[in-house]
Write a structure and sequence with these properties.
sigma factor, transcription regulation, RNA_pol_sigma70_r2, about 180 residues, Butyryl-CoA Dehydrogenase, subunit A, domain 3, mainly alpha, globular
Length: about 180
Amino acid sequence: MKQAERSLEELLVLRAQAGDSRALDQLVRLRGPRLLAHAMRLSGRADDARDIVQEAWIEILRGLHGLREARAFAAWATRIVTRRAARFVKGNVARRALSAAVSVETETSMPDVGEAASDARAVRKAMSSLPPDQAATIALFYLEDMSVAEVAIALDIPRGTVKTRLMHARAKLKDALKGACDE
């Protein structure tokens, strides 16, 4: 997320906390797709991800006035989605395993045509082979442009765990992409 978008998001949070319903609507439109992509990575199914995010928004809206720092909104909201997704997955363990839950097909930041599309497909394929915890960490760090501290808050894990997951995921991606380039 670019600095201008982060600043806009921070302003929208402050205005929403002050009771501006239009700002709240804009905030949902700005952050909503990112939260949905995160839920999709964790749940593996679009319908489940939408349900998770819908429930998360209820919790986000209820807790918004208690958020002390508007700049922490992205990590805070992502953490709520992470916890909602964990509860959802835990409640549906009998139906499917979390290991099948990673999908980065919903990412809109990757091109659809040309040589870049081939590279994007290779990256998506490599990311889909990562364990869910590593895929979520990589996506938040690189695709959502969150810092290590923000990812730690979003996933409710220690910073050291974020760094370890990034290290292992990078190694796996490097090997997977090296294999894709050799073909």
